[in-house]
Amino acid sequence: MARRRPGAADAEPVAQGEALAAAADDPESPDSPDPQAAAAASPGHGRAAGWLRIFRENRALWVTAAVATACLVAGLVVGRFVLSPADAAARTAAPEAGYITVPVAFGTLTNDVTMRGQVGYADSTEVKIAAPEGADAAVVTGQVPKAGAELDAGDIALEVAGRPVFVLPGKLPAYRTLRVGTSGPDVKQLKQALADQGISVTSGSKFDNDTAKAVRTLYLRAGYTAPVDSTAAEGVRTAREALRSADSGLASARKALAEARKGPSAVTRKEADNAVAEARRALQAAQAADSPDALEVARLKDELALAKLRRKEALKRGDTSAEAGALSSAKQQRKDAAKQLADAKKAALPYLPAGEVLYLTQLPRRVDEVKVERGDILDGAAMSVSGAKLELSGSVSAADAKLLEVGKDAFFELPDGNQHRAVIATIEAADKGDRSTIGFTPDPLTAEQTEQLKGSNVKLTIAVGSSDGDVLSVPLAALTAGPGGEARVEVVEGDPRDKAQAKTRLVVVRTGLAAAGYVEVAPVAGSLVKDDLVVVGT
Fold first, then answer.
1. What CATH code would you report for 467-537?
2. DSSP codes of every residue in 407-422
3. What angle do CA 62, 64, 70 make, to 5 degrees?
4. Alpha carbon distance 323, 316 (integer Å)
């Protein structure tokens, strides 16, 4: 036995396989082995060679099968999407006419007015605040609100140069400083605003002492001192001194006049009386002598007459005109001094500067945007505000507006799909055109709902008519008129599509509320129940 070289056993099968493969690729080769022998020599290459031999021997059959399969697929496609003229005509021909029916409905029938409503905060306004009196610059020093905050009556909108700016209700803007003595509609507005805050104040349109006291109370409640004239205190002191001096002069004038009106003293009066009595005694003595001296008696008579004249003159009241004039002058001086003091006191009373009050309508208000910060100098608008409550506004025709009234309920859909109630707050007819603007106030909303709805547009539905409970209703098109003018409907019994076989019957009905294309009906002659099919067309 010949010795085999190492590796010869491995190389022989490989060489044999390569030869078989080459022979298979070239069947005309003289070295082409027998296929069966090749298959026996290599199993893997044998199978491949077997399939190759089958394909080559039946090539015509395979080609025929492929062509047949393609024709079959093409036929199916054409049969699916291509119609013959006869088929097309059959498919496009109108179906046999039948009844068009609608079932009888049962439930509450309502007549609604619908509209689109814009959701938002009404009456947006930019707020401008002037610099306080005496301030070098309008510097924001505090009380700066945040966007979304509410401003109500008595609140402080901003603090400028250390002074508060009060929010009060009113239509008139603050166009002047209000002091004691001023009067007008702006004063009346202030008094009403103070009264609404529970601060006692007199009515009327004049700024009086009582109004000044009320203003002081307003400032004290907020923790600020009310503004007063810086020079008023000195004026009050000066006026008080002048009044005291006038009072002293008046007292002196009164005393002088009183003294002047008293006349001679008791001593003077007694001396005059004694002189008269002495002259009278001397005369009497002379007359009682044994031989009266006529000349002496005559002289004594003259003395008595002179004594009487002197007594009369001594007892006569003096002229007090000078003293009376001095008293009158003292009184006028005192009156003038008192008026000066009153004026000084008025000047010292609190007042309301125009820059420390902000009048706004429809309080409370919502702060939409704040345009300043602490330390800023005011220049232009400080903030923008709008109505604090979310409102809905839409428009309808004049005809629909006549069906609505203030206080009537409306409903709209929330973002979560639930229905929410709103109430008609205002109905305003347009100056031109036939549209009316309708304002709504929604029921309370959560903060999240408010943010979701703000700026959106919603559908509002207002029921303006409703049936009395659940009723039968049919489309208006289902009603026909009988020979006597009675209303009736045609009810189909059976399949309405089979017109030839379906039976119908007429039911006389009484009509009621009509809404949304339907009308309330009640059978008068015949039977009519829910889900009966009534004819609306053919």
1. 2.40.420
2. T-EEEEE-TTS-EEEE
3. 105
4. 17
Tell me the domain boundaries of the chain.
130-228+349-377, 250-333, 389-466, 467-537
Element (H, E) at 57: helix 43-57
Q: What is the pLDDT along the chain (538 residues), one digit of tens a residue?
A: 334 444 434 434 333 444 433 344 444 444 444 444 444 444 445 555 555 565 566 665 555 666 566 656 555 544 554 455 555 555 555 555 678 899 999 998 888 889 999 998 877 788 888 777 767 788 999 999 998 899 999 999 999 999 999 999 999 999 999 999 999 999 999 999 999 999 999 999 999 999 999 999 999 999 999 998 878 778 888 888 999 999 999 999 998 888 777 777 788 888 888 999 999 999 998 998 888 888 988 999 999 999 999 888 877 766 788 888 999 999 999 999 999 888 888 888 999 999 999 999 888 988 989 999 999 998 888 999 988 788 899 999 888 888 899 999 999 999 999 999 999 999 988 766 678 999 999 999 988 898 889 889 999 999 888 888 899 999 999 999 999 889 999 999 888 777 667 888 999 999 988 887 899 999 999 999 999 999 998 7
Q: Which CATH number fits domain 389-466: 2.10.240, 2.60.40, 2.60.220, 2.40.30?
A: 2.40.30
The structure tokens 């001397």 sit at 282
H-assigned helices in 138-265: 185-196, 209-222, 232-262
- Vertex 206, ends 131 and 203: CA angle to 5°? 110
